[in-house]
Design goal:
heterodimer, A: alpha+beta, Uridine Diphospho-n-acetylenolpyruvylglucosamine Reductase, domain 3, Enolase-like, domain 1, 25% strand, B: Ubiquitin-like (UB roll), DNA polymerase, domain 1, 2 domains, 5-stranded mixed beta sheet
Chain lengths: 295, 161
């Protein structure tokens, strides 16, 4: 006999009402690749499971008139990876999402779920932070939109208020000469949790970096926006001095834990190494993304 | 709480079942539906022994609620052979001894078919990454990878369906 309720909401209003009615015992179900594991282990015992996959807005990828993209919170990694124009505009974001788990997990796991699970090591989040993505949240008081970096508040915790749920993630329009990349360090080649994850997004004009954002994961209670690293890159030609300074800023931002995956010293060092490597990839993409540029 | 009534399609046939909210698709396949080909290895999405397709998309049935199957189309290992005629992947797994204890085999077959349905010309690296979510503790994987590569080659030559 089950005491758990399952609600397949047909609209955002219905989902919000079901979450409010659950009185703090509700859990949103998107891909379920975290939730079902947590339920089985006893880490989560929801009174009501609110499935949002019947709601069009959370299941669609929309190309916006300004050239940006809105990714529904429950769109699976597999669907995101097959979206050609999104993958062309934001290869780093798409790679980060596609690094989560196996092909089987990709068939269900979503970027919205990865964000709401609020792990400091979530693969998609540093790339979304670097991209300047916004989170659209719907709740009893309507809609609000916040930057991705403001969403997680601690390991497994986030800023969602009672009755609120994530509807979509919005990536801004891409300027010419822009590129992004995400790299993570794991002890094996696949199917593991990041020791450090780092996303870079930058814009190059005439060999000079004119805009940059850096997102850093698995080295602090939440994924970080490393503004000092971006400052070191902006205005430079991504020369060694600028890269060293940006790498040092990433290492300085680290407040990691010691665990079986890596020590504090190792994570801190690797954060700088990944900054240099991810910046090189993003810069190569940026310069091949200019009309008449390298291909 | 009352049971949930779910109508879905399994291997092309419409089926109905009753389940509790927290029952996984794997629980219902192996229990009420009697389809025990999908195995439970880990129950946490790590081993792939419970692999099925949902609307053609490869997923772990242990990470899906049975209630979510409503209105969708489920494919399991039981739908792979056509009557007594084995699927070319099944034939090749036997021919090349790509299995030992057999627990992981249904998951590998379902996952490999999902790959070849999309791409009949995968590189060995692509096959290995595609099957990274399927664990085998017997074979050492090589025979499995070779079997999948061989079937892909046969499909390109038009000898395998």
């Amino acid at each position: 006999m089950s005491d758990i309720r399952y609600v397949a909401a047909e609209s955002l209003d219905e989902a919000v009402k079901a979450m409010l009615a659950a009185g703090g015992q509700g859990k949103i179900l998107a891909g379920g690749t975290d939730l079902l594991v947590q339920m089985r282990s006893g880490a989560q015992n929801p009174g009501t499971i609110v499935d949002v996959k019947k709601i069009d807005e959370v299941m669609q990828i929309v190309e916006l008139p300004d050239g940006g993209f809105r990714i529904g919170a429950a769109v699976s990694g597999a669907v995101i990876g097959e979206h050609k124009s999104l993958s062309a505009a934001w290869p780093g974001v798409v790679e980060a999402i596609n690094l989560i788990g196996s092909k089987q997990v990709q068939g269900r796991a979503s970027a919205g779920g990865n964000l709401c699970n609020s792990s400091p090591a979530a693969d998609s989040v540093p790339a979304l932070v670097a991209a300047g993505a916004k989170v659209t949240i719907q709740g009893p008081n309507g809609r609000r939109e916040i930057p991705v970096e403001a969403f997680p508040t601690g390991p497994g915790r986030n800023c969602l208020q009672p009755g609120e749920l994530v509807v979509s993630l919005t990536l801004p329009a891409r300027q010419p000469g822009s590129g992004d990349a995400y790299l993570r360090l794991i002890p094996r080649t696949e199917m593991d949790i990041a020791v450090v994850g780092l996303g870079v997004s930058l814009t190059m004009k005439d060999g000079v970096c004119t805009a940059a954002r850096v997102g850093l994961g698995a080295v602090a209670p939440t994924v970080l926006l490393v503004e000092d690293a971006a400052k070191a890159l902006i205005g430079s030609k991504l020369d060694d001095a600028a890269l060293e300074q940006a790498a040092a800023a990433c290492s300085a931002a680290c407040k990691p834990i010691n665990d079986k995956r890596g020590t504090i010293a190792y994570r801190t060092k690797i954060a700088g190494v990944l900054l240099k490597r991810a910046t090189a990839i993003a810069a190569r993409r940026a310069t091949s993304n200019v009309p008449g540029g390298m291909h | 709480m009352a049971k949930l009534h779910v109508t879905t399609t399994v291997n092309g046939e419409e089926v109905e079942f009753l389940c509790d909210a927290q029952d996984s698709m794997l629980d219902v396949l192996r229990g009420p539906l009697g389809l025990t080909g999908s195995k439970e290895g880990c129950g946490s999405g790590d081993c792939g022994a419970c692999s099925i397709t949902v609307d053609g998309r490869l997923v772990c049935s242990c990470l899906m609620l049975a209630a979510e199957a409503q209105g969708h189309s489920i494919g399991t290992i039981e739908g792979m052979a056509q009557g007594d005629r084995l699927h070319p992947l099944q034939e090749k797994f036997i021919e090349l001894a790509a299995l030992q204890c057999g627990i992981c085999t249904p998951g590998f077959l379902v996952a490999a078919k999902a790959l070849l349905d999309r791409n009949t010309n995968p590189t060995e690296t692509e096959v290995r990454y595609w099957l990274a979510g399927n664990l085998c503790r017997c074979t050492g994987y090589d025979k499995i990878i070779r079997a999948v590569m061989d079937v892909a080659a046969d499909m390109r030559k038009g000898v395998a369906a």
